[in-house]
Amino acid sequence: MATDSTGTDGAGRQRPIVIVGASLGGAKAAQALREAGYTGGIVLIGEEHERPYERPPLSKGYLLGKSSREKIYVHPAQWYAEHDVTLRLGTRVVSIDPAAHAVTLADNGRVEYAKLLLTTGSVPRRLPVPGGDFGGVHYLRRVEDSERIRKEFRPGARIVVIGAGWIGLETAAAARTAGAEVTVLEAAELPLLRVLGREVAQVFADLHRAHGVDLRFGAKVAELTGADDRVTGVRLGDGTVVPADAVVVGVGIAPDTELAEAAGLEVENGIKTDEHLRTSDPDIHAAGDVANAYHPQLGRHIRVEHWANAVNQPQTAARAMLGEDAVYDRVPYFFSDVEWTPRHATGDVPSRDKLSLEYVGYVEPDGYDRVVFRGDVAANEFIAFWLRDDRVLAGMNVNVWDVVDPIRDLIRSQRAVNPERLADPDVPLTDV
Hints:
Strand content: 25-35%
Helix content: 10-25%
Structural class: alpha/beta
Distance between the termini: 41 Å
Strand order of the largest sheet: 3-2-1-7-19
């Protein structure tokens, strides 16, 4: 186990491990280094002025006003000083010099490193249409974004959500909870179609419509209309204008690879790494949303934009930077909560006002040949399995608990299963 830094500067001083990105991943990496016994310097640099925090609550509990601000932070404020972590907030890294083992800051400051970890995360994709800079047009990525959007969610407000991905559906539910009138515009035929496939995507469409969300599919946004520098509506390709008091744009995110590209690191759908989360430069690692990491079991590179990667990958990166033969081979995992409180519903409402799910595994949109359901889909209490050649590639449990481990075991086994037994709730998953 390494206990101090592995390089010195020109004056003979030990260089620290530098982490660029004071995110959940960056904070977890600093924690993992200390837990591994590393006693050298750690410098954690972040462009935001907030200390590292978790992003899932921004579209869930915090957006709903159910969680306090203090609960979103990864560590208490005093943790960094107590663990001798130099936390530099409001500081932007503008370049990396791999040959000199140094990063340059926006104020022309320079920080040398022995090892460098990039946890720069991702940035929201912008909506490339006229009117996108009107007031009342929001993107959800940072804590202040969540706070601004929450102020827009009030009874009777006309909220238009562009994009029916996870962020879009979660914010739509939060807006309905606040009593707003919500329209979701999605270019595809169903929400989450690329992620979940048609069979499961339809479940989410039915649920949102049952709670009064106006879902419009095949919608092409042509421009945002406005008056007095404030958005007033969304004009579609067919000329229809959807009135809006505020617009939330959730059309995806892109890995923040600008620094890596400029430094000459290999970049392909994120910063490309091996199974040790090491980039094309042996002294630079990457973790979280930005890392396109080789997965030993899948035999390919994958980039997963979810909380679990930001929590777990830094542990592997930290050990690898300290010289251990650490490999990241966890089965991908994510979770989501979609909640309506109080009930805002029309028609035949499903029995639950909260849909909580966990998804384990990895499957491309065209990478499966069958979906098997176990449980009561109509009551939103079920497990969906994605199969190819009768092998389980991924599983998603909806309002069903304590099944992630057996689902993960089915995926890792790579053995064929009997689909009828898989669908039978009387057959334990451990016996399938």
